[in-house]
Amino acid sequence: MKIHFNNLFILGLNHNIMKQVIIVRADLKMSKGKMSAMVAHASVDSVLRSSSSSIDKWKAEGMKKVILRAESLKELLNLQKKAKSENLVNSLIKDSGKTFFKEPTITCLAIGPDSAKKIDKVTSKLKLIS
Fold this sequence. Notes:
The chain is of the alpha+beta class and 130 residues long. The chain has one domain (15-123): Bit1, CATH 3.40.1490. The protein is built from four helices and six strands, in the order βββααβαββα. A four-stranded mixed sheet has the order 4-3-6-5, sandwiched between helices. The longest helix is centred in the first third of the chain and has 17 residues, at 32-48. Mean pLDDT is 91; it is low at 1-14.
């Protein structure tokens, strides 16, 4: 079975989709603009750390991204530790503290792109950002 949907090819039910997850600290109450900038920084930096084969496969599948929330810095750092233990490319972002924040502040974490199955081992219990 082969289904084509928005440049996404799904071969059977066991096909493992690639994705990237960006986890944002909800406790910081960032403006939408600041949060968007931090998510963009995290996404780009994590992609730049990834292998070309992972990037190529992710691009071919539509570059799926999911934005999730962490309730605190402690939770975000624990997620990074789990991502590292699963050998997942990740990028922890620290804002410089020159505009929205008064001091340098860790804001978000990107994981991947990698297989959704591997990333879900780390992030499956998190909620979508709202």
